[in-house]
Automatic annotation (TrEMBL):
Family: Belongs to the FemABX family.
Organism of origin: Kribbella amoyensis
InterPro entries: Acyl_CoA_acyltransferase, FEMABX, PG_Glycine_Bridge_Synth
Acyltransferase found in the keyword field: yes
Name assigned to this protein: Vancomycin resistance protein VanK
Superkingdom in the source lineage: Bacteria
Keywords: Acyltransferase, Cell shape, Cell wall biogenesis/degradation, Peptidoglycan synthesis, Transferase
Pfam families given in the database record: FemAB
Signal peptide per UniProt: none
GO molecular function list: aminoacyltransferase activity
GO biological process, one term: cell wall organization
């Protein structure tokens, strides 16, 4: 198979996405509008005259040298990862280098390892275990092969040890939904989750889908101050909703949990085809006992089931299972849903102009990326 790569229109890109069961929301044409500060383009892979793959590329310019860029393909491209990797990647690299890219960064949407909720729970309880990777996993041969091939071809891994960095997380937590009913999903949750959902219902927490992004953002900023992370500005969320909703009115939704008229939790859900993602969440410090966050999650899970989704993705976790690590609470909250921890191939860089890449890498390290 000889493939060619060329620029395609957003409409053609979206048409291809709609033929797939699901792709990452980061690989939809609308995501280019969310990341408007970066130059973007949609690429298509052609086998003869047939469009067989797509990729959204975000171009980050080099400081002081705008014509050179880091070409970033988040959670993509959308290609046949089971096939000959070189046949897919080489024509993309040639095209991007010709267009001025000094390096390519991509994140293959392919898993390498999976751990069940029971395994994660056992790891947290075992004082000898510190990380997920110390536990036996269900390995995925395709992911293992891709990782090896990228390394052999000169790609450089960009995955931080703690699982979080400036890119997208290598470790995530996913709740399989295929063929399951609400009752089956509920029974798969741990006792604490079921008890918290009952508590929310008893306290009269009401979850609705709304449009009040300002109320969400105020609560999100409060959450950021409490949990010590840097919040995104309101404008970012306004842009995200405008761009994704314009592409598909069912693409993104805001869930708001109220107790006695007061907003106690809020979450954002994104869906593409048969996969749904919990992307942002916020909760009040007051009234945490009414369990608004659990109620929001359950509403999003139920709606994902009703939409025929295969997976409800709770997004990033750190790989720690050390009970003394301050990050372990994140995985404990998500593991309560009864899903599975997943490690993907992660993000990798291919330097196309090594001297420029080294200078860029040194610059980014100095500014803390």
């Amino acid at each position: 198979m000889t493939l060619t790569v060329q620029r395609i229109s957003p409409a053609k890109h979206l048409g291809f996405v709609r033929t797939r069961r699901s792709v990452s929301f980061l690989q939809t044409p609308a995501w280019a509008g969310v990341k408007a500060a970066w130059r973007s383009e949609s690429l298509g892979w052609y086998d003869g005259r047939d469009l067989v793959g797509t990729g959204l590329v975000l171009h980050r310019p080099v400081p002081l040298v705008d014509r050179l860029t880091l070409a970033y393909v988040p959670e993509g491209p959308v290609i046949d990862w089971t096939g000959d990797l070189d046949a897919w990647i080489d024509p993309m690299a040639d095209r991007l280098k010709g267009d001025g890219a000094f390096a390519i960064r991509l994140g293959p949407p392919v898993r390498t390892d999976t751990w069940s909720a029971a395994q994660v729970k056992e790891g947290i309880a075992d004082p000898e275990v510190r990380r997920l990777t110390e536990l036996p996993s269900q390995a995925a041969s395709i992911g293992t092969r891709i990782t090896a091939r990228l390394r052999e071809s000169g790609w450089l891994p960009q995955n931080p040890l703690d699982g979080f960095g400036n890119g997208h997380p290598q470790f995530t937590f996913e709740l399989p939904l295929t063929g399951r009913t609400e009752d089956e999903v509920l029974r798969g949750m741990n006792q604490l989750w079921r008890r918290n959902l009952k508590k929310a219902a008893k306290e009269g927490v009401e979850v609705s889908i709304g449009e009040d992004l300002k109320a969400f953002h105020d609560l999100y900023v409060h959450t950021a101050e409490r949990d010590h992370f840097t919040p995104r500005p309101l404008r970012y969320f306004e842009t995200m909703f405008a761009q994704l909703s314009a592409e598909d009115p069912e693409r993104i939704k805001l869930y708001l949990a109220h107790h006695q008229g007061e907003l106690v939790a809020a979450s954002i859900l994104i869906r593409v085809g048969t996969q749904a993602w919990y992307t942002y969440g916020a909760s009040s410090t007051a009234k945490r006992e009414v369990r608004g966050s659990n109620a929001c999650q359950w509403a999003m899970i139920r709606d994902s089931l009703a939409a025929g989704c295969d997976v409800y993705n709770l997004r990033g976790i750190t790989p720690t299972v050390d009970a003394d690590d301050p990050h372990v609470g994140l995985i404990q909250f998500k593991v309560g849903t009864g899903g599975e921890a997943v490690r993907s191939v992660g993000e990798w860089d291919l330097p196309l102009r090594p001297m420029v890449y080294r200078a860029f890498d040194a610059y980014m390290r100095r500014r803390g990326r």
